[in-house]
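QA checklist item 7 of 12: single-chain prediction sanity check.
[x] sequence parsed
[x] length recorded as 179
[x] structure emitted
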Amino acid sequence: MAKTSPAAIWLMRAVFAGVALLIMFFHLLPLDTMPRRWSPPDLLLAFALAWSSRRPDFVPPLLIAAVMLLADLLFQRPPGLWALLALLACEFLKSRLSTHRETPFLGEWVAVSIVMIAIALLNRMILGILAVEQAHIALILVQVIMTIAAYPLVVLISQSLFGVRRLSAADAETLGARL
């Protein structure tokens, strides 16, 4: 039985915020003074999607929006666009929770991969329409591919270190009754 007490849920929300801040901290560290030729995976998005598809009660929409907006501001992206797309992606995965519960991991990985590709394309398309300067398409493709490749590792870390497992049928009923 999963921990579904309100204190445990709030603790896991704080853990998600802490993980997000840790990811942002390491992303902003000046470890190399030369520009990179490749883009690292977007671990923040991968964690948000993994937690949304596995335990939606741990990542409410306001927390996702706040974390992603802070990341937009710190990473000097156009404020709000990536946050909105990530929030919509997470909420889409939450709405498909009942179908993901019986799906094997490979099916979940494919679904999350399609969502990642869709938001990357939407982001690029919207920025193109608004004539905002963008990174080269190869960097975006590398980042999306690396994020998709890192997703199983993110799920493994979430499950083993933080205990973020899929909801059982009983937990889903309890969660549904509380919402």
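[x] summary fact logged: The CA atoms of residues 99 and 110 lie 13 Å apart.
[ ] second reviewer sign-off
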